[in-house]
Amino acid sequence: MLRFREAASSDITTIMALERACFNRDTQEAESTYLERIDAFPQGFIVMESGTEFLGAVSSELWQYEPSIARDSFTLGHSIKKQLKLAGDELYISSIGIFPEYRKCGYGKLLFRELINRVHVLFPLVVRGILLINEEWYGARKIYANNGFHDAAVFDDFFTSDDGTKTNGIVMRNDDIRKLSLGKIF
Ligand SMILES: CC(C)(COP(=O)(O)OP(=O)(O)OC[C@H]1O[C@@H](n2cnc3c(N)ncnc32)[C@H](O)[C@@H]1OP(=O)(O)O)[C@@H](O)C(=O)NCCC(=O)NCCS
Fold first, then answer.
1. Long-range Cβ contact pairs of 153-159 (< 8 A, separation 24 or more)
2. What is the pLDDT of residue 184?
3. CA 75, CA 183: separation in Å to the nearest integer?
4. Could you tell me if the CB of 139 is within 6 A of ligand 1?
């Protein structure tokens, strides 16, 4: 049976293994960044499990909506504590990952919707959603596009692959994520 819960600092070893399984060297966040995310906003850091198996996790922040989109806000290792606004109206999804052996079974989209539901219940002031993806993260892009996120900005050559190739970053936004919520936590 699937189970969702808030992440705890005791999950950090598994969360870092997930980070390495999901992202290349240039894109991996440091352990300290993840520990800060868990400490600052555990309500937005959700783990998905089945029995004793850790399937994946999603992390997020609350920001105050700004119409303009600044590249600096999305840099690797930015401090959640400096940017977090608990009374903010925009959900920033900082990362979502499913271990490779569990991908393409529908878990990613379930995890995403669980985060949206929880935020809607706990932080009813949140209206919008924002995130940054690599143009080549096709699975993530599909989840967000299927959930009403549109391309809002392109950062040229934002990401670097292990072979040095540069790829663009795409900021996606949804102007009313409340429409996605079921209004209850399962
Ligand atoms: C992105 C990720 C979380 C998706 O998880 P998942 O459990 O495989 O996704 P799902 O099975 O729920 O699939 C969601 C949708 O994406 C599609 N999809 C999944 N992987 C895909 C891929 N590689 N290419 C194209 N479409 C893909 C599915 O067909 C499904 O579409 P549908 O709802 O229209 O049928 C997972 O691939 C992952 O961990 N990737 C590495 C980390 C990453 O890129 N994170 C995004 C950073 S924000």
1. 153/69, 155/71, 155/74, 158/71, 158/74, 158/132, 158/134, 159/26, 159/27, 159/134
2. 53
3. 32
4. yes
Q: Residue 63: which of 127, 138, 9 has the closest Cα? A: 127
Residue that has been written with the tokens 């970053």 in this structure? 169
Nearest alpha-carbon partner for 83 in 113, 67, 60, 58: 60
The residue nearest atom 26 of ligand 1, judged by CA position, is 139
Contact yes or no for 62/90 (Cβ under 8 A): yes
Coil, helix or strand at residue 47: strand
| pTM for this entry | 0.95
Q: Calculate the dihedral angle through the C-alpha atoms of 22, 107, 71, 153, rounding to the nearest 10 degrees.
A: 130
- For residue 104, the model assigns a pLDDT of 97
Integer Cα distance of 154 and 25 in angstroms? 22
Specify the pLDDT at position 78: 82
Residue 91: predicted pLDDT = 97
Q: Compute mean pLDDT per 10 residues along the chain, 186 residues long, and list them.
A: 97 98 95 96 98 97 94 86 92 97 98 96 96 96 96 96 95 94 58
- Backbone phi and psi for residue 183, each to the nearest 5 degrees, phi listed first: 75, 15
Which residue's CA lies nearest to atom 9 of ligand 1? 108
Structure tokens at 97: 């990952």
